[in-house]
Every structure is written in structure tokens, then in C-alpha cells.
Amino acid sequence: MKKIALMFVLSLIFYSCEKDYLIPDKEVPEWLKSKISQDEQMMDDYPSSCLYYGAWLRYIWQDEYYFEYHCSCSSSSPRAISTKGDTLHIRADDANTDYYKEKCCRQLVWKAPKYTDSPW
Asked: What pLDDT is stored for residue 107 in this prediction?
């Protein structure tokens, strides 16, 4: 019985040390893991930060993953960033303008404590 209790406690400790990603850890690029860690540190340092209302989302477009940071207290449009960390630069005359029409399969990657989900 003691062994079972010890294993339970150890597994609970191990589980609590995992990052709170909403997709498998191996599918989160290193640049995004670093950015999320920075955001979490900023939230600890500045409790009234707008970061408390943000989330990272993942979409598929042209058979590739793109990540966007959404924040309800920001008026700027989210930038699409590839798995490699490259920003998808979109201009009015660019073929990439189809990104916003064609992206699909929205998934939450990480969300801050006060993030409210929306279908966009």
C-alpha cells in the first residue's frame, strides 16, 4: 500500500511539472515554448498585464501549421507565424491574403488564466 501511495505522489509531482499546453508538447515549436515562458514570467511580474487575456492558437493553411497570438484587450490583428518561426507577411497585393479565408482547424495551444474563448 505504501508503494502505491508513493507512486501516486511521484506521478502527481511529475504531472504537475508538465507545461500546460493544450496540444501535445512535441507539437509546440521551441520558439513558441520560449515565448510562452516569457509571457508567463511577465504575468508573474506584472499581475495587471494584458497578457492574462491572451492565447496562442494553431491553424492549418496549405498543409502547414501557423500560430497566432490572440488577445482580447489588443486591437491589432494576429500575425501568422510558421512552425519554423517565420512571420507570414501579408500585403493587400500578396497571394497570402487567402490565409485568413482558407486557414482551418483552429486549436488552442496555450491560454492565459483570464482568456475567454471565441470562435475566431
From this structure: 95
Q: Is residue 65 part of a domain?
A: yes
User: What's the domain range around 48?
Assistant: 20-111
DSSP per position, 43-112 = HHH-TT-GGGGEEEEEEEETTEEEEEEEETT--SPPPPEETTS-B----TTSGGGGHHHH-EEEEEEEE-
Q: Structural domain tally of the chain?
A: 1
CB hemisphere CA count around 36 (13 angstroms) = 22
Does some domain include residue 116?
no
Residue 77 within any structural domain of the chain:
yes
Sign of the C-alpha dihedral computed for residues 45, 50, 55 and 60 taken in this order: negative
Q: Is residue 117 part of a domain?
A: no
Q: What is the pLDDT of residues 17-70, one digit of tens each?
A: 445 789 999 999 999 999 999 999 999 999 888 999 999 999 999 999 999 999
Q: What is the mean pLDDT of the chain?
A: 82
12, pLDDT greater than 50: no
Using an 8 Å Cβ cutoff, are 24 and 84 in contact? no
